Automatic annotation (TrEMBL):
Its EC number is 3.2.1.-. Transmembrane segments: none annotated. InterPro entries: Lysozyme-like_dom_sf, MltB-like, SLT_2. The keyword Heme does not apply. One of its GO terms (molecular function) is hydrolase activity, acting on glycosyl bonds. Residues 22-312 form the Transglycosylase SLT domain. This is Membrane-bound lytic murein transglycosylase B. The keyword Transit peptide does not apply. Pfam families: SLT_2. One of its GO terms (biological process) is peptidoglycan catabolic process. Keywords: Glycosidase, Hydrolase. It comes from hydrothermal vent metagenome.
Length: 317
């Protein structure tokens, strides 16, 4: 029955949905009241006004087995790791250099990585998303999709964020996944790592000082070290690498990587994240250090993290 309802919604151009009639929503409201002492009337008023978003659900409705979690490296390479991005990154760094130096010194995080995150996530604040966050998270929390429980948690965090910061939950816009601001923080990330760097009483994801300090705080708090590499390049004797799976969660012993024919120098950890970038004519092979793993903990994508790395290396050239 539930699957049929989703199909009917997806094929219908316009269909209002009564969230307050949904048993899972009722349970969620009771949970928020019991766990967080949230106002029942406020929650009911929010869910009464919240809208189902067909387009948002379609982003996560692909069956898990058929879903590919990451855009190809060529998409990143052709759209993000490009001269226009380098030019904008240089300009952004120059404009905010005093602020960036202060944040970098305080959190001990490389300036160029901070700049690269702002570039990849929102084109330096020019594209922070135009989806209603409450509509997006509620749709994904209560309609079947491959990350339903994750979005239910983010909805919980978003409602707490709005209550604590006195935000109107219907006013905030972000990505179709509920990410906010210049470095696209999910609600849970903002609550845990958000920084009120301009000292105006609130950590604002859309404010440049707050956003840049927040991503620096995230990286620092998770163990970032400027004295450690992010990745090192490896060589292989064939143009394509098909020996082992690569990915943000694919870790291999260094000796095993050497045994299968990879050559590399100066990798200081016992294990490495295996990174294979499928370029047009040849696979690039890299080994990720702990700093790389911290980047993929912000966004579970080796291509995302490699885009950050490559952009960061071009900023000062």
């Amino acid at each position: 029955m539930r699957s049929l309802l989703i199909i009917l919604i997806l094929i219908s151009p316009i269909l209002s949905y009564d969230y307050l009639a949904n048993q899972d929503v009722k349970k969620f409201i009771n949970y928020m009241i019991k766990e967080h002492k949230y106002s029942k009337s406020k929650l009911e008023n929010i869910f009464k006004k919240t809208k189902f978003k067909k387009r948002v659900l379609s982003k996560y409705s692909v069956p898990k087995k058929a879903y590919k979690s990451d855009a190809s490296w060529r998409v990143y390479e052709n759209n993000l790791v490009v001269p226009l991005m380098f030019k904008r990154a240089k300009k952004f760094k120059k404009r905010h250099l005093k602020l960036l130096k202060k944040i970098s010194k305080e959190y001990r995080v490389d300036i160029n990585i901070i700049v690269a995150v702002a570039g990849v996530e929102s084109n330096f604040g020019t594209n922070t998303g135009n989806f209603s966050i409450i509509d997006a998270l509620t749709t994904l929390a209560f309609f079947k999709n491959r990350k339903e429980e994750f979005f239910k948690y983010e909805l919980e965090e978003y409602l707490l964020l709005c209550r604590d910061k006195k935000y109107n939950p219907f006013k905030l816009k972000g990505s179709f996944a509920g990410a906010m601001g210049i470095v696209q923080q999910l609600p849970s990330i903002n609550i845990e790592y958000g920084v009120d760097y301009n000292k105006d009483g609130v950590s604002n994801p859309w404010n440049i000082p707050d956003a840049l300090a927040s991503i620096a705080n995230f990286l620092h708090s998770n163990g970032w070290s400027n004295s450690r590499s992010i990745v090192i390049k490896a060589k292989y004797n064939k143009s394509r690498f098909r020996v082992l799976d690569s990915g943000f969660d694919k870790y291999y012993n260094i000796q095993k990587l050497r045994d299968i024919g990879l050559t590399f120098n100066n990798f200081k950890q016992d294990n490495a994240t295996l990174i294979v970038l499928n370029s047009k004519y040849i696979d690039e092979i890299w080994l990720g250090d702990k700093n790389f793993d911290i980047l993929t903990s912000y966004n579970n994508s080796i291509n995302y993290a490699m885009a950050l790395y490559k952009i960061s290396k071009k900023i000062d050239k």
